[in-house]
Amino acid sequence: MTHTTDRPAQAGADTPNNWKGLSRGAIGLLGGLVIGVSTIAPAYTLSGALGPTASAVGEHLPAILLVGFVPMLLVAIGYRQLNKAMPDSGTTFTWASRAFGPWIGWMASWCLLAATILVLSNLAGIAVDFFYLAIAQLTGQEQIAALTRNVPVNIATCLAFMAAAAWISYRGLEATKAFQYILVTFQLVVLAWFSIAAFMQVSAGSAFDATPVRLDWFNPFGVESFSAFAAGVALSVFIYWGWDVVVTMNEESRGATSTPGKAAIATILVVVALYMAVSVATLSFAGVSDGEFGLGNTDIQENIFAALAGPVMGPFAVLMSLAVLSSSASSLQSTMISPARTMLAMGHYGALSPKYARVSPVHKTPGYATVVSVVIASVFYAVMRVVSENVLWDTITTLGMMVCFYYGVTALACVWYFRREATASLRSLATKVVAPLLGGLLLLVFFFQTAWDSMDPAYGSGSQIGGVGLVFLLGVAIFVIGGAAMVVQYLRSPEFFRRRFETTEYPTAS
Question: How is the chain split into domains, by residue range?
Answer without folding.
Answer: 2-10+27-503
